[in-house]
Amino acid sequence: MLVEFRPHTRLRGERPADLGASVLPVVNAVSESDADLGKVRVVCDWVQYRNNFRDAVDIRPILRGEPGALPEPIGVRDDDLEIAVDVRRATEAPLGELTATLLRQVPERVVLEGWTRGSQSCVWQFNALYWSALELWEKATGRGYEQALPGGESDARNTAAATELIEELFAVWDRLAATNALPEELYVVELGVGNGNQAKVFLDRFRELDTGHGKGYYGRLHYLMCDYSAHVLDLARETVAEHAERVSLFALDATRPRRSLAFLQYKAFLIYISNVYDNLPTDEVAQLGGRTYCVQTRAYLPAEAAGELATSISATPGQLPELVRKLLRLGPSLLVDACPAHFPDVDSAVRFWQRTWSAVRLEERYVPLAGLDTYPLTEALTGETLRPLLESGADVRMHVNNGAVASFDETLGLLHPYGKLVCHDLFVTDIQGYRTTFRGPGKYDGSVVNWVNGPLLAHVGRRRGFDVHYEPFRHRGGGHIVTMTAQVRD
Ligand SMILES: C[S@@+](CC[C@H](N)C(=O)[O-])C[C@H]1O[C@@H](n2cnc3c(N)ncnc32)[C@H](O)[C@@H]1O
Protein backbone atom coordinates (compact mmCIF):
# COMPACT_ATOMS: atom_id res chain seq x y z
CA MET A 1 0.00 0.00 0.00
CA LEU A 2 1.21 3.47 -0.82
CA VAL A 3 0.41 6.34 1.53
CA GLU A 4 1.11 9.85 0.31
CA PHE A 5 0.73 12.72 2.76
CA ARG A 6 0.99 15.86 0.63
CA PRO A 7 0.48 18.75 3.08
CA HIS A 8 3.64 17.94 5.04
CA THR A 9 4.27 21.60 5.91
CA ARG A 10 1.12 21.49 8.02
CA LEU A 11 2.68 18.94 10.36
CA ARG A 12 4.53 21.81 12.04
CA GLY A 13 3.39 25.12 13.44
CA GLU A 14 1.02 26.22 16.16
CA ARG A 15 -1.85 23.98 15.16
CA PRO A 16 -0.22 21.04 13.37
CA ALA A 17 -2.35 18.65 11.32
CA ASP A 18 -2.88 15.32 13.05
CA LEU A 19 -1.18 12.72 10.90
CA GLY A 20 -2.51 9.84 12.99
CA ALA A 21 -6.10 11.08 12.83
CA SER A 22 -5.94 11.54 9.04
CA VAL A 23 -4.15 8.36 8.05
CA LEU A 24 -4.60 5.58 10.61
CA PRO A 25 -8.39 5.22 10.57
CA VAL A 26 -8.28 5.06 6.78
CA VAL A 27 -5.47 2.50 6.65
CA ASN A 28 -7.20 0.39 9.32
CA ALA A 29 -10.46 0.47 7.38
CA VAL A 30 -8.67 -0.60 4.19
CA SER A 31 -6.88 -3.44 5.94
CA GLU A 32 -10.18 -4.72 7.35
CA SER A 33 -11.80 -4.63 3.88
CA ASP A 34 -11.49 -7.06 0.95
CA ALA A 35 -9.31 -4.64 -1.03
CA ASP A 36 -6.01 -5.97 -2.39
CA LEU A 37 -3.68 -4.11 -0.02
CA GLY A 38 -0.86 -4.12 -2.54
CA LYS A 39 -2.98 -2.15 -4.99
CA VAL A 40 -4.23 0.74 -2.92
CA ARG A 41 -3.00 4.32 -2.76
CA VAL A 42 -4.04 6.54 0.15
CA VAL A 43 -3.58 10.20 -0.75
CA CYS A 44 -3.99 12.96 1.83
CA ASP A 45 -4.58 16.59 0.83
CA TRP A 46 -5.45 19.70 2.78
CA VAL A 47 -8.44 21.02 0.82
CA GLN A 48 -8.24 24.69 1.72
CA TYR A 49 -11.49 25.65 -0.02
CA ARG A 50 -14.37 25.36 2.44
CA ASN A 51 -16.68 25.11 -0.54
CA ASN A 52 -15.42 22.39 -2.84
CA PHE A 53 -16.43 19.27 -4.75
CA ARG A 54 -15.09 16.64 -2.38
CA ASP A 55 -16.21 14.65 0.62
CA ALA A 56 -13.89 14.06 3.58
CA VAL A 57 -13.08 10.69 1.99
CA ASP A 58 -13.49 9.78 -1.69
CA ILE A 59 -12.65 6.62 -3.56
CA ARG A 60 -11.23 6.88 -7.08
CA PRO A 61 -11.03 3.74 -9.21
CA ILE A 62 -7.84 3.40 -11.25
CA LEU A 63 -8.77 1.77 -14.55
CA ARG A 64 -6.53 -0.35 -16.77
CA GLY A 65 -6.29 -0.09 -20.54
CA GLU A 66 -7.73 -2.84 -22.74
CA PRO A 67 -5.25 -5.75 -22.66
CA GLY A 68 -2.70 -5.21 -25.44
CA ALA A 69 -4.01 -1.72 -26.23
CA LEU A 70 -1.11 0.04 -24.56
CA PRO A 71 2.60 -0.76 -24.65
CA GLU A 72 3.38 -2.13 -21.20
CA PRO A 73 5.91 0.05 -19.39
CA ILE A 74 8.36 -1.87 -17.23
CA GLY A 75 8.20 -1.86 -13.43
CA VAL A 76 4.87 -0.07 -13.10
CA ARG A 77 2.48 -0.20 -10.15
CA ASP A 78 -0.92 -1.56 -11.06
CA ASP A 79 -3.08 0.05 -8.41
CA ASP A 80 -6.82 -0.58 -8.29
CA LEU A 81 -7.93 2.41 -6.35
CA GLU A 82 -7.00 5.64 -4.68
CA ILE A 83 -8.50 6.71 -1.40
CA ALA A 84 -8.46 10.50 -1.16
CA VAL A 85 -8.59 12.05 2.29
CA ASP A 86 -9.18 15.71 3.18
CA VAL A 87 -6.86 16.26 6.15
CA ARG A 88 -8.60 19.52 7.05
CA ARG A 89 -11.73 17.54 7.92
CA ALA A 90 -9.90 14.71 9.74
CA THR A 91 -10.94 15.82 13.20
CA GLU A 92 -14.56 16.49 12.36
CA ALA A 93 -15.45 13.51 10.11
CA PRO A 94 -15.34 9.80 11.01
CA LEU A 95 -12.75 8.94 8.35
CA GLY A 96 -12.49 5.24 9.22
CA GLU A 97 -16.25 4.67 9.06
CA LEU A 98 -16.57 6.65 5.85
CA THR A 99 -13.76 4.66 4.23
CA ALA A 100 -15.20 1.31 5.36
CA THR A 101 -18.65 2.21 4.02
CA LEU A 102 -17.30 3.41 0.69
CA LEU A 103 -15.25 0.21 0.30
CA ARG A 104 -18.28 -1.96 1.11
CA GLN A 105 -20.90 -0.45 -1.15
CA VAL A 106 -21.38 2.06 -3.90
CA PRO A 107 -23.04 5.08 -2.24
CA GLU A 108 -26.44 6.31 -3.38
CA ARG A 109 -26.09 9.37 -5.53
CA VAL A 110 -28.03 11.35 -8.09
CA VAL A 111 -25.66 11.49 -11.03
CA LEU A 112 -25.90 14.64 -13.16
CA GLU A 113 -23.76 13.62 -16.16
CA GLY A 114 -21.74 10.78 -17.67
CA TRP A 115 -18.01 10.30 -17.01
CA THR A 116 -16.01 12.91 -18.85
CA ARG A 117 -12.77 14.89 -18.83
CA GLY A 118 -12.77 17.63 -16.19
CA SER A 119 -12.92 20.43 -18.77
CA GLN A 120 -16.14 18.98 -20.23
CA SER A 121 -18.00 18.66 -16.92
CA CYS A 122 -21.28 20.48 -16.33
CA VAL A 123 -19.57 22.41 -13.53
CA TRP A 124 -18.36 24.73 -16.31
CA GLN A 125 -21.95 25.36 -17.35
CA PHE A 126 -22.65 26.30 -13.73
CA ASN A 127 -19.63 28.60 -13.91
CA ALA A 128 -20.87 30.28 -17.11
CA LEU A 129 -24.34 30.61 -15.63
CA TYR A 130 -22.88 32.35 -12.59
CA TRP A 131 -21.31 35.05 -14.74
CA SER A 132 -24.31 35.45 -17.04
CA ALA A 133 -26.85 35.62 -14.20
CA LEU A 134 -24.51 37.28 -11.70
CA GLU A 135 -27.05 39.95 -10.82
CA LEU A 136 -29.55 37.37 -9.54
CA TRP A 137 -26.89 35.49 -7.58
CA GLU A 138 -25.50 38.62 -5.95
CA LYS A 139 -28.98 39.87 -5.10
CA ALA A 140 -29.73 36.60 -3.31
CA THR A 141 -26.46 36.49 -1.35
CA GLY A 142 -26.07 40.24 -0.79
CA ARG A 143 -22.37 39.87 -1.67
CA GLY A 144 -20.41 41.03 -4.71
CA TYR A 145 -18.24 38.47 -6.54
CA GLU A 146 -15.01 40.33 -5.64
CA GLN A 147 -15.52 39.42 -1.99
CA ALA A 148 -14.91 35.76 -2.87
CA LEU A 149 -11.59 36.51 -4.61
CA PRO A 150 -8.25 36.05 -2.79
CA GLY A 151 -7.85 39.00 -0.41
CA GLY A 152 -11.51 40.02 -0.74
CA GLU A 153 -10.96 42.41 -3.65
CA SER A 154 -9.43 42.16 -7.05
CA ASP A 155 -5.78 43.12 -7.47
CA ALA A 156 -6.88 44.38 -10.85
CA ARG A 157 -7.89 47.64 -9.12
CA ASN A 158 -4.42 48.33 -7.83
CA THR A 159 -3.41 51.84 -8.92
CA ALA A 160 0.34 51.33 -8.41
CA ALA A 161 0.25 48.25 -10.68
CA ALA A 162 -1.68 50.18 -13.35
CA THR A 163 0.75 53.11 -13.14
CA GLU A 164 3.73 50.83 -13.66
CA LEU A 165 2.13 49.20 -16.71
CA ILE A 166 1.21 52.53 -18.28
CA GLU A 167 4.66 54.03 -17.73
CA GLU A 168 6.19 50.97 -19.41
CA LEU A 169 3.81 51.37 -22.34
CA PHE A 170 4.68 55.05 -22.69
CA ALA A 171 8.39 54.19 -22.70
CA VAL A 172 7.91 51.66 -25.53
CA TRP A 173 5.72 54.05 -27.50
CA ASP A 174 8.17 56.93 -27.09
CA ARG A 175 10.97 54.75 -28.46
CA LEU A 176 8.86 53.64 -31.43
CA ALA A 177 7.65 57.20 -32.07
CA ALA A 178 11.24 58.42 -32.19
CA THR A 179 11.82 56.23 -35.27
CA ASN A 180 8.37 56.84 -36.79
CA ALA A 181 7.48 53.21 -36.06
CA LEU A 182 4.54 53.83 -33.74
CA PRO A 183 1.20 52.84 -35.31
CA GLU A 184 -1.61 55.40 -35.15
CA GLU A 185 -3.90 53.06 -33.21
CA LEU A 186 -2.70 51.93 -29.80
CA TYR A 187 -4.48 48.71 -28.81
CA VAL A 188 -4.89 47.37 -25.30
CA VAL A 189 -6.98 44.22 -24.73
CA GLU A 190 -8.48 43.04 -21.47
CA LEU A 191 -9.93 39.52 -21.21
CA GLY A 192 -12.51 38.74 -18.51
CA VAL A 193 -13.36 42.25 -17.37
CA GLY A 194 -15.67 41.56 -14.41
CA ASN A 195 -17.32 44.75 -13.16
CA GLY A 196 -14.86 46.91 -15.15
CA ASN A 197 -13.01 48.25 -12.12
CA GLN A 198 -9.58 47.35 -13.52
CA ALA A 199 -10.41 49.07 -16.79
CA LYS A 200 -11.54 52.16 -14.93
CA VAL A 201 -8.39 52.34 -12.83
CA PHE A 202 -6.28 51.81 -15.95
CA LEU A 203 -8.14 54.37 -18.07
CA ASP A 204 -8.34 57.03 -15.35
CA ARG A 205 -4.65 56.68 -14.63
CA PHE A 206 -3.77 56.54 -18.34
CA ARG A 207 -5.55 59.83 -19.03
CA GLU A 208 -3.92 61.46 -16.03
CA LEU A 209 -0.39 60.30 -16.88
CA ASP A 210 -0.88 61.15 -20.56
CA THR A 211 -1.76 64.72 -19.66
CA GLY A 212 1.55 65.03 -17.86
CA HIS A 213 3.45 63.15 -20.58
CA GLY A 214 2.05 65.38 -23.32
CA LYS A 215 2.19 62.97 -26.31
CA GLY A 216 -1.57 62.62 -26.86
CA TYR A 217 -1.58 58.83 -26.45
CA TYR A 218 -4.99 58.84 -24.76
CA GLY A 219 -6.68 60.06 -27.96
CA ARG A 220 -5.11 57.16 -29.92
CA LEU A 221 -5.92 54.47 -27.34
CA HIS A 222 -8.32 51.61 -28.18
CA TYR A 223 -9.19 49.69 -25.03
CA LEU A 224 -10.95 46.42 -25.93
CA MET A 225 -12.98 44.95 -23.08
CA CYS A 226 -13.75 41.25 -23.67
CA ASP A 227 -15.94 38.87 -21.72
CA TYR A 228 -18.36 36.05 -22.46
CA SER A 229 -21.06 37.41 -20.17
CA ALA A 230 -23.32 40.08 -21.66
CA HIS A 231 -24.33 41.08 -18.14
CA VAL A 232 -20.72 41.58 -17.07
CA LEU A 233 -20.02 43.63 -20.20
CA ASP A 234 -23.01 45.87 -19.42
CA LEU A 235 -21.68 46.41 -15.89
CA ALA A 236 -18.22 47.18 -17.18
CA ARG A 237 -19.56 49.56 -19.85
CA GLU A 238 -21.25 51.61 -17.14
CA THR A 239 -18.13 51.63 -14.97
CA VAL A 240 -16.03 53.15 -17.76
CA ALA A 241 -18.77 55.36 -19.22
CA GLU A 242 -16.62 58.48 -19.10
CA HIS A 243 -14.05 56.77 -21.38
CA ALA A 244 -16.71 55.55 -23.84
CA GLU A 245 -14.88 56.96 -26.86
CA ARG A 246 -11.76 54.97 -26.10
CA VAL A 247 -13.51 51.67 -25.27
CA SER A 248 -15.01 48.85 -27.38
CA LEU A 249 -16.76 45.82 -25.93
CA PHE A 250 -16.46 42.29 -27.30
CA ALA A 251 -18.61 39.35 -26.28
CA LEU A 252 -16.20 36.46 -26.74
CA ASP A 253 -14.97 33.24 -25.23
CA ALA A 254 -11.56 33.87 -23.66
CA THR A 255 -10.51 30.34 -24.65
CA ARG A 256 -10.89 31.29 -28.34
CA PRO A 257 -9.98 34.94 -28.58
CA ARG A 258 -8.81 34.78 -32.21
CA ARG A 259 -12.34 34.08 -33.43
CA SER A 260 -13.20 37.72 -32.70
CA LEU A 261 -9.82 39.40 -32.42
CA ALA A 262 -7.89 37.97 -35.40
CA PHE A 263 -7.81 41.51 -36.87
CA LEU A 264 -5.46 42.45 -34.03
CA GLN A 265 -2.67 40.10 -35.12
CA TYR A 266 0.70 41.66 -34.12
CA LYS A 267 -1.07 44.88 -33.07
CA ALA A 268 -1.85 44.63 -29.35
CA PHE A 269 0.62 46.44 -27.11
CA LEU A 270 -0.86 45.08 -23.92
CA ILE A 271 -3.04 42.06 -23.24
CA TYR A 272 -4.23 42.19 -19.67
CA ILE A 273 -5.89 39.34 -17.79
CA SER A 274 -6.57 39.05 -14.08
CA ASN A 275 -8.29 36.27 -12.17
CA VAL A 276 -9.57 34.65 -15.37
CA TYR A 277 -7.21 31.77 -16.23
CA ASP A 278 -8.07 30.13 -12.89
CA ASN A 279 -11.71 30.31 -13.95
CA LEU A 280 -11.34 28.54 -17.33
CA PRO A 281 -12.09 24.85 -17.98
CA THR A 282 -9.36 22.38 -17.14
CA ASP A 283 -8.58 18.68 -17.22
CA GLU A 284 -6.22 17.02 -14.81
CA VAL A 285 -3.65 14.40 -15.79
CA ALA A 286 -1.53 12.22 -13.57
CA GLN A 287 1.62 10.16 -13.70
CA LEU A 288 1.11 7.38 -11.15
CA GLY A 289 3.42 4.42 -10.62
CA GLY A 290 4.89 4.72 -14.12
CA ARG A 291 1.61 5.12 -16.04
CA THR A 292 -0.08 8.22 -17.43
CA TYR A 293 -3.74 8.85 -16.72
CA CYS A 294 -6.43 11.37 -17.49
CA VAL A 295 -8.66 12.15 -14.52
CA GLN A 296 -12.29 11.68 -15.52
CA THR A 297 -15.02 13.27 -13.44
CA ARG A 298 -18.78 12.94 -12.99
CA ALA A 299 -20.91 15.52 -11.18
CA TYR A 300 -23.42 14.15 -8.66
CA LEU A 301 -25.60 15.11 -5.72
CA PRO A 302 -25.26 13.04 -2.53
CA ALA A 303 -28.52 11.15 -1.79
CA GLU A 304 -29.44 13.10 1.32
CA ALA A 305 -28.88 16.53 -0.23
CA ALA A 306 -30.73 15.41 -3.36
CA GLY A 307 -33.72 14.29 -1.26
CA GLU A 308 -33.95 17.63 0.53
CA LEU A 309 -33.45 19.58 -2.67
CA ALA A 310 -36.15 17.61 -4.49
CA THR A 311 -38.64 18.08 -1.62
CA SER A 312 -37.97 21.83 -1.63
CA ILE A 313 -39.24 22.10 -5.23
CA SER A 314 -42.01 19.46 -5.08
CA ALA A 315 -40.03 17.04 -7.24
CA THR A 316 -38.48 13.60 -6.86
CA PRO A 317 -34.71 13.01 -6.76
CA GLY A 318 -35.06 11.23 -10.10
CA GLN A 319 -36.33 14.45 -11.71
CA LEU A 320 -33.32 16.47 -10.58
CA PRO A 321 -30.88 15.72 -13.43
CA GLU A 322 -33.40 16.97 -16.02
CA LEU A 323 -34.28 20.05 -13.95
CA VAL A 324 -30.57 20.85 -13.49
CA ARG A 325 -30.01 20.49 -17.25
CA LYS A 326 -32.90 22.91 -17.85
CA LEU A 327 -31.50 25.34 -15.30
CA LEU A 328 -28.10 25.28 -17.01
CA ARG A 329 -29.62 25.69 -20.47
CA LEU A 330 -32.21 28.36 -19.68
CA GLY A 331 -31.02 30.13 -16.54
CA PRO A 332 -33.19 30.79 -13.48
CA SER A 333 -35.52 33.38 -15.05
CA LEU A 334 -36.65 31.22 -17.97
CA LEU A 335 -36.74 28.12 -15.76
CA VAL A 336 -39.80 29.65 -14.07
CA ASP A 337 -41.66 29.71 -17.42
CA ALA A 338 -40.46 26.21 -18.34
CA CYS A 339 -41.28 24.51 -15.02
CA PRO A 340 -43.92 26.57 -13.15
CA ALA A 341 -44.97 23.56 -11.06
CA HIS A 342 -41.55 23.51 -9.41
CA PHE A 343 -40.59 27.17 -9.50
CA PRO A 344 -43.36 29.68 -8.76
CA ASP A 345 -41.02 32.66 -9.13
CA VAL A 346 -37.45 33.65 -9.99
CA ASP A 347 -36.38 33.69 -6.34
CA SER A 348 -37.29 30.02 -5.94
CA ALA A 349 -35.37 29.16 -9.13
CA VAL A 350 -32.31 31.06 -7.83
CA ARG A 351 -32.57 29.22 -4.50
CA PHE A 352 -32.65 25.92 -6.39
CA TRP A 353 -29.57 26.95 -8.38
CA GLN A 354 -27.63 27.95 -5.27
CA ARG A 355 -28.60 24.88 -3.25
CA THR A 356 -27.78 22.57 -6.15
CA TRP A 357 -24.39 24.21 -6.63
CA SER A 358 -23.60 23.97 -2.97
CA ALA A 359 -24.39 20.23 -2.99
CA VAL A 360 -22.61 19.32 -6.25
CA ARG A 361 -19.68 16.94 -5.82
CA LEU A 362 -17.33 15.38 -8.37
CA GLU A 363 -16.61 11.66 -8.52
CA GLU A 364 -13.24 10.93 -10.05
CA ARG A 365 -11.52 8.01 -11.71
CA TYR A 366 -8.18 7.55 -13.44
CA VAL A 367 -8.32 6.39 -17.05
CA PRO A 368 -5.06 5.40 -18.78
CA LEU A 369 -3.99 7.65 -21.64
CA ALA A 370 -3.35 5.61 -24.76
CA GLY A 371 -0.48 7.98 -25.62
CA LEU A 372 0.16 11.64 -24.98
CA ASP A 373 -0.09 12.41 -28.69
CA THR A 374 -3.70 11.16 -28.69
CA TYR A 375 -4.70 13.55 -25.91
CA PRO A 376 -6.11 16.87 -27.23
CA LEU A 377 -4.66 19.50 -24.91
CA THR A 378 -6.18 22.27 -27.06
CA GLU A 379 -7.33 22.41 -30.70
CA ALA A 380 -3.75 23.29 -31.65
CA LEU A 381 -1.64 21.32 -29.14
CA THR A 382 -1.44 17.63 -28.27
CA GLY A 383 -0.60 16.07 -24.93
CA GLU A 384 3.02 15.70 -26.08
CA THR A 385 3.43 19.24 -24.72
CA LEU A 386 2.92 17.77 -21.25
CA ARG A 387 5.68 15.16 -21.47
CA PRO A 388 8.53 17.13 -19.85
CA LEU A 389 6.27 18.06 -16.96
CA LEU A 390 4.76 14.61 -16.41
CA GLU A 391 8.14 12.95 -16.61
CA SER A 392 9.68 15.39 -14.14
CA GLY A 393 10.36 12.81 -11.44
CA ALA A 394 8.06 11.26 -8.85
CA ASP A 395 4.32 10.70 -9.24
CA VAL A 396 2.39 13.85 -9.97
CA ARG A 397 -1.17 14.91 -10.62
CA MET A 398 -1.54 18.31 -12.25
CA HIS A 399 -3.89 20.69 -13.99
CA VAL A 400 -3.75 21.03 -17.73
CA ASN A 401 -5.71 24.31 -17.79
CA ASN A 402 -6.86 23.58 -21.34
CA GLY A 403 -8.87 26.82 -21.49
CA ALA A 404 -6.01 28.99 -20.21
CA VAL A 405 -3.42 27.32 -22.46
CA ALA A 406 -5.65 27.80 -25.53
CA SER A 407 -6.29 31.41 -24.57
CA PHE A 408 -2.62 32.13 -23.90
CA ASP A 409 -1.46 30.41 -27.07
CA GLU A 410 -3.90 32.36 -29.25
CA THR A 411 -3.37 35.74 -27.64
CA LEU A 412 0.42 35.56 -28.02
CA GLY A 413 -0.21 35.81 -31.76
CA LEU A 414 -2.03 39.13 -31.27
CA LEU A 415 0.90 40.85 -29.59
CA HIS A 416 2.88 43.59 -31.30
CA PRO A 417 6.59 42.64 -31.38
CA TYR A 418 7.06 45.16 -28.53
CA GLY A 419 3.82 44.21 -26.79
CA LYS A 420 3.35 42.12 -23.69
CA LEU A 421 0.82 39.92 -21.99
CA VAL A 422 0.35 40.53 -18.27
CA CYS A 423 -1.68 38.17 -16.15
CA HIS A 424 -2.34 38.21 -12.40
CA ASP A 425 -3.60 34.87 -11.15
CA LEU A 426 -3.13 31.83 -8.91
CA PHE A 427 -0.16 30.18 -10.62
CA VAL A 428 1.70 27.05 -9.57
CA THR A 429 5.21 28.09 -10.61
CA ASP A 430 6.99 24.80 -10.02
CA ILE A 431 5.67 21.29 -10.74
CA GLN A 432 6.73 20.27 -7.23
CA GLY A 433 3.96 22.61 -6.05
CA TYR A 434 1.44 20.00 -7.27
CA ARG A 435 3.00 17.36 -5.04
CA THR A 436 2.51 19.29 -1.81
CA THR A 437 -0.56 21.49 -2.08
CA PHE A 438 -4.13 21.05 -3.22
CA ARG A 439 -4.70 23.29 -6.25
CA GLY A 440 -8.40 22.99 -6.84
CA PRO A 441 -11.05 22.72 -7.94
CA GLY A 442 -12.75 24.87 -5.34
CA LYS A 443 -15.89 26.97 -5.41
CA TYR A 444 -15.79 30.78 -5.19
CA ASP A 445 -19.46 31.60 -4.72
CA GLY A 446 -21.05 30.24 -7.91
CA SER A 447 -17.81 29.94 -9.88
CA VAL A 448 -15.03 27.36 -10.13
CA VAL A 449 -11.39 28.00 -9.23
CA ASN A 450 -8.33 25.95 -10.20
CA TRP A 451 -4.73 27.08 -9.90
CA VAL A 452 -2.90 27.52 -13.20
CA ASN A 453 0.00 25.36 -14.34
CA GLY A 454 2.74 27.99 -14.72
CA PRO A 455 5.49 25.69 -16.06
CA LEU A 456 3.09 24.47 -18.78
CA LEU A 457 2.24 28.00 -19.94
CA ALA A 458 5.91 28.93 -19.85
CA HIS A 459 6.74 25.87 -21.96
CA VAL A 460 4.04 26.73 -24.52
CA GLY A 461 5.20 30.36 -24.62
CA ARG A 462 8.87 29.47 -25.03
CA ARG A 463 8.07 27.19 -27.96
CA ARG A 464 6.39 30.20 -29.59
CA GLY A 465 9.48 32.37 -29.05
CA PHE A 466 8.31 34.22 -25.94
CA ASP A 467 9.99 34.81 -22.62
CA VAL A 468 7.54 33.93 -19.85
CA HIS A 469 8.32 35.25 -16.41
CA TYR A 470 6.61 34.80 -13.01
CA GLU A 471 6.91 36.92 -9.89
CA PRO A 472 4.72 37.41 -6.82
CA PHE A 473 2.24 40.28 -7.33
CA ARG A 474 4.39 43.22 -6.29
CA HIS A 475 1.79 45.67 -5.11
CA ARG A 476 0.17 43.75 -2.26
CA GLY A 477 2.05 41.63 0.25
CA GLY A 478 1.05 38.29 1.67
CA GLY A 479 -1.30 37.00 -1.04
CA HIS A 480 -0.93 34.06 -3.41
CA ILE A 481 -1.37 36.11 -6.57
CA VAL A 482 1.47 35.80 -9.07
CA THR A 483 2.09 38.03 -12.08
CA MET A 484 2.97 36.34 -15.34
CA THR A 485 4.55 38.42 -18.10
CA ALA A 486 5.08 37.16 -21.64
CA GLN A 487 7.08 39.09 -24.21
CA VAL A 488 8.80 38.26 -27.48
CA ARG A 489 12.25 36.89 -26.68
CA ASP A 490 15.02 39.44 -27.39
C1 LIG B 1 -13.10 36.35 -11.35
S1 LIG B 1 -13.69 37.41 -12.58
C2 LIG B 1 -12.31 38.49 -12.79
C3 LIG B 1 -12.72 39.87 -13.16
C4 LIG B 1 -11.59 40.90 -13.20
N1 LIG B 1 -10.64 40.61 -14.23
C5 LIG B 1 -10.92 40.99 -11.84
O1 LIG B 1 -9.76 40.62 -11.70
O2 LIG B 1 -11.59 41.44 -10.93
C6 LIG B 1 -13.63 36.39 -14.03
C7 LIG B 1 -14.15 37.08 -15.27
O3 LIG B 1 -13.85 36.25 -16.39
C8 LIG B 1 -15.00 36.09 -17.18
N2 LIG B 1 -14.89 34.79 -17.85
C9 LIG B 1 -14.86 33.56 -17.27
N3 LIG B 1 -14.75 32.62 -18.21
C10 LIG B 1 -14.72 33.26 -19.40
C11 LIG B 1 -14.62 32.82 -20.75
N4 LIG B 1 -14.54 31.52 -21.06
N5 LIG B 1 -14.62 33.76 -21.72
C12 LIG B 1 -14.70 35.08 -21.43
N6 LIG B 1 -14.81 35.54 -20.18
C13 LIG B 1 -14.80 34.65 -19.17
C14 LIG B 1 -16.17 36.21 -16.23
O4 LIG B 1 -17.37 36.56 -16.89
C15 LIG B 1 -15.66 37.30 -15.29
O5 LIG B 1 -15.94 38.57 -15.79
Give the termini distance in whole angstroms.
50 Å
Instruction: Give the helix tally.
Output: 15
Low-confidence blocks of residues:
none
Mean pLDDT: 94
For the biggest β-sheet, the strand order reads 9-8-7-10-15-21-20
Second rung of CATH, namely the architecture of the domain at 146-280 and 400-488: 3-Layer(aba) Sandwich
- The CATH topology of the domain at 146-280 and 400-488 corresponds to Rossmann fold
Helix content, binned percent: 25-40%
Task: Determine and state the CATH class of the domain at 146-280 and 400-488.
Answer: Alpha Beta
The dominant shape is globular
How many β-strand runs? Answer: 21
User: Hey, roughly how much beta strand do the residues contain?
Assistant: 15-25%
For the biggest sheet, the summary is:
7 strands, mixed
The SS-based structural class is: alpha/beta
In CATH, the homologous superfamily of the domain at 146-280 and 400-488 goes by the name: Vaccinia Virus protein VP39
**Cα Rg:** 24 Å
Hetero groups: S-adenosylmethionine
